[in-house]
Amino acid sequence: MSTKKGFTLVELLVAIAIFAVLSALGWKVFDYLAKVKDRNAMHEANLEQLQESYQQILRDTMQAVPLTANVKGQQQPALVLQNGRFNFSKTGVTDPLQQSISPHERVEYQYRADEKKLYRLKYRNLHQTGNDQPESSVMLDEVEAFEIMVLNPNELSSWPESSVDSQQTEQLRLLPKGIKINLTVRDVQYEWIFSLLQTDFLKKKDN
């Protein structure tokens, strides 16, 4: 005659303890993988934003043109870098519907330290009344530091190099050789250098 034996209380407690340990380890692994996935997704989003900002500035600088702007009747240099303010004239605006839209516009990069954001402002016309509202978009978030220098070829913190009379049109049209941007985004420092291509734009325009 055989007797059936079940699990003893000690065996059950040991089995429960082992299951609890394995469950805890499994949850920790799952939680770790979820956090890694979230960090990777955030890193990819940040990297994508940096790449898009770099490409946008690259397109803008490649389309920079030696054309002055007019604000409230005052002639402005083709490129201005004064007290952290940076703007310049560019071409490349398309008019597929033939609405007599100017092919030229004015863009400005504006860093707002209180928001830790870099903005791109775009004026659709080189001639402004001073009340014109630009199209504004955020280029970068979490920007801890931002600085622009012009290269001609030496680094300069302002442009034009010296005070230029508003009647000196040729001097107002001068562009530097390039620009250098130093920025810190999420504790990582970057240095971007862009060439301002010197073209025969004015000659072609006159012809």
Major sheet size, sense and barrel closure: 5 strands, antiparallel
Number of strands: 12
Helix content: 25-40%
Structural class: alpha+beta
Rounded to an integer, what's the Rg over CA atoms? 29 Å
Span of the ends, CA to CA = 116 Å
Low-confidence stretches: 202-207
Beta strand %: 25-35%
Q: Please state the average pLDDT score.
A: 84
Shape: elongated
Helix and strand pattern:
HEEEEEEEEEEHEEH
Supply the number of helical segments.
Answer: 3
Strand order of the largest sheet: 3-4-5-6-8
Would you kindly provide a brief summary of this structure?
This protein is α+β, with helices and mostly antiparallel strands. Helices cover 31% and strands 32% of the residues.
